[in-house]
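Hi U.,

Before I forget, here's the chain from the pilot set. I'm dumping it here mostly so it's searchable later in email.
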Amino acid sequence: MWLVIIVGLGLLLLPMIINIAEWVLIIGFAIIILGWFFHAFLWLLPFIVVAFVGQKLIDNYYLKTGKGKFWASHKIKDK
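Structure:
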């Protein structure tokens, strides 16, 4: 008798459990995709920082010495 009740409740709850599992999979997949984008951004970040910091150093050098006009940014050249 108890086995019939437990199996019956299990069958009634099965669609809800499958739906919860589906949402868990969707959320997990979204977290993985966001993690990939974040990881790619972290790999690109040093190159972006080097580019901006390097350009700032080149511009300061050009303003102090007047050398390196080819490498200086357009905003600095126009001054």
